[in-house]
Amino acid sequence: KQWYQRRVRGSFDSGVTLSYEYRIGQLKKCAAMIKAMEKEYFEAVRKDMRKHPAETNGTDLKFTESDLGYAMKHLKTWMADQYVKTDLVNKIDQAYLCPEPKGVVIIFGAWNYPVQLALSPLIGAICAGNCAVVKPSEVAPSASAVMKKYFDLFLDPLCYRTIEGGVETASALLKLRWDHIFFTGSVSVGKIVARAAAENLTPVTLELGGKCPVIVDETTNIDTAAKRIIWGKCVNAGQTCIAPDYVYCHKKQISSLIERMKHHITDMYGEDPEKSECFARIINKIHFNRLKTLLSDGTVAIGGKTNEETCYISPTVITSPDLKSKVMSDEIFGPILPILEYEDIQSVFRYIRTKEKPLVCYVFSNNAKLIDEVKKKVSSGTLDVNDCLMHMMVPTLPFGGVGHSGIGKYHGKATFEEFSHHKSVLHKPIGMESVNNIRYPPYDAEWKQNLMYSLAYYKPNAPSGNAFTKYAVTSTMAGAAFAYAYAWPGGSGGSGQ
User: Which of 229, 242, 384, 396 gets the most CB atoms within 10 Å of its CB?
Assistant: First the structure.
């Protein structure tokens, strides 16, 4: 592991990744890589999770291709210096932010969307000019093997390396010093990553999870709400960090909601979802057994069927869950959806605020006042109104959590920003030293103190627009006149030389 890091560090120090041409070239190789690996990757994910190729393509590969295309289109603009306004004292100077790569970064992928959750961060790291080590999750071994094969085949091996392995490998990697750590996974492991990063004061991006609530009020179209919630819950068999975790439905709608959910489960997956080619399986026996125990935490209204041999758990809706039970305290991460009813929306807000801040909050409503109230009263990484998961398809919306649901954001330009250090640059002309003489000691002249105050501090009543321009020019000329007219103690006098 140290050898890999040293080799990549040497490549970064050589400056090879700094040019636009190099970065866009590696992004083009990423695009070619996705095309080349499609067939093998579909088979690998099918082997790991029995996931339909169309779902893998849409939620994993095509999503990443979209992210990649957006980055390639905008890379040159992202790399450009960003000029900022200056105050009166520095009016003739150039001030700007220069994005520079952080250095050598490590990306820990996740097993539920292996390519998306490793390659999307890597795209941002490449865009920002970093070198990177990528560790796919060992929990999806078939997908991990395919990713390593193609990553090593297509990307520059001197700058980008892929390392497979389990917990021992991850622990060894965390002991090394990195310039940024990007981790996607559980809150418990996220804390381990954060502690390791703290040893070297390494910045981190933690894409975690939590319990994403859904609020369904009495004004929404209940059939559409049911359909979209069920789809959001059942994609990848619920093994999605932004999947709806539990529903609070107005009591006038709850019976209709459950009935329409049952209808749409049948529509999507047939009378017996276990026979459907479109419904995935739980990743392994450990997660299967954990989920199976949750079925007893409420009354099963829909589904509840399991098959340990194939790690199958049917799309399940449970009602009247105990608020202190595991299904209501832990992130579910599976196709089990608890539904509670409410009459007073304030009670829903109070309950949500007793939990850690969620990665996403969903609300289905046609009531603008309620939507605004949810926006103001529920703190979450994202608010999705009248849909599930689809905010991920907007590259201009940064994605990330708040509090226990994560640190940092990515997607689109936000990924570039996450892997960049924006260096502040002030470029001042070497001439016009007469104007600058006012800032040098001694400060015993009262007029000099007053003029320094006038130039250096913002005044609430200072003019703006054209009036400010006149004010700025007049003040600057006054400063230059004073500097020219008076000899400074210890100086030579009027010329300022």
Answer: 229
> Which pLDDT score, from 0 to 100, does residue 471 have?
54
State how far the Cα of 152 lies from the Cα of 8, in Å rounded to an integer. Answer: 13
pLDDT tens readout for residues 17-70: 999 999 999 999 999 999 999 999 999 999 999 999 999 999 999 999 999 999
Tell the residue number behind the tokens 């209204």, with chain if given. Answer: 301
Residue 383: both structure tokens together: 């608010």
CA distance 360 to 186: 15
At residue 80, φ and ψ (nearest 5 deg) are -70, 150
Distance CA 117, CA 124 (A): 12
Cβ(383)–Cβ(360) below 8 Å: yes
CA–CA distances in Å: residue 371 to residues 309, 365, 375, 386: 44, 7, 6, 10
Residue type, position 249, single letter:
C
Structure tokens, 460: 């609430």
Q: 372 and 383 in contact (C-beta within 8 Å)?
A: no
Task: Give the side-chain half-sphere CA count within 13 A for 361.
Answer: 25
**What helix, strand, coil percent values describe the chain, rounded to 5?**
50, 15, 35
- 114-166 residue pLDDT tens: 999 999 999 999 999 999 999 999 999 999 999 999 999 999 999 999 999 99
Tokens, residue 418: 């996450």
Contact 405, 209 (CB under 8 A): yes
CA distance 167 to 132: 19
Q: Where in the sequence numbering do the catalytic residues fall? A: 207, 241
**Separation of alpha carbons 105 and 337, rounded Å:** 37
> Would you state the structure tokens that stand for residue 130, as one six-digit string?
């970093």
Residues 386 and 374 sit within 8 Å (Cβ to Cβ): no
* Distance from C-alpha of 382 to C-alpha of 192, rounded to nearest angstrom: 25
